Amino acid sequence: MEAEGKEIGSALQYIESDNINFKGKLAIINSEVLFNGRNINVDIDKTTSYVRNSGVSFNAHQDNNYSGRFALRNSSIRFLGYRNIPIGDGNDNNSLDKNKLNDINLNKLSMLGFGQIFAHGDNINITDVKFKERPSDDGLSKTYIDLIADNEINIKGQFKTSLINEYSLFKFASKITENNKVIFDINPHKTK
48 CB contacts (<8 Å, ≥6 apart)? Predict the structure, then answer.
């Protein structure tokens, strides 16, 4: 699936393809959408995409890259690596371990507004990512960022979070590194 400038409004959609590539503006309003593909590339860094009153999930089985600017309003974006969600008839013989999550790659990603950002993969690789919260109309902090890796979270470059509530950022992994510095390691003496 190739899309350059796509708008989805007032819909419940499941979109599946071997390769899902987005360029240009993506606007999702009052919708619940799951994109499920072997390879997903979201490259929208020349414009701002909008997600309003919606839930959007990107589930990649193999290669993936997410870059660009998203404006959230009362919405959630999920970056998933669930290989056990079937593609097609589910009989694809692609030698991928269905019991192991795929890695998630967030590169030069910028998000502003309020809502939930969730990522779950085997490893989460983050390069130059910014999250900036803009409060809701009632002035309350309603942004939550959850990064969950079965193995490692690797952060390179800038990782900026401008949140009203500092406790809204949650990182969970066996090991967390920031610019090659180990921040947390559940097995600090493990030899490889």
Answer: 25, 68, 69, 70, 71
Q: What 3 state SS string does the chain have?
A: CEEEEEEEECCEEEEEEEEEEEEEEEEEECCEEEEEEEEEEEEEEEEEEEEECCEEEEEECCCEEEEEEEEEEEEEEEEECCCCCCCCCCCCCCCCCCCCCCCEEEEEEEEEEEEEEEEEEEEEEEEEEEEEECCCCCCCCCCEEEEEEEEEEEEEEEEEEECCCHHHEEEECCEEEECCEEEEECCCCCCC
Tell me: the pLDDT tens digits for 114-160?
999 999 999 999 999 999 888 777 766 678 999 999 999 999 999 98
Q: Are 53 and 33 in contact (CB under 8 A)?
A: no
Enumerate the domain spans of the chain. 11-185
| Residue 74 amino acid letter | N
pLDDT band, residue 6 (cuts 50/70/90): low
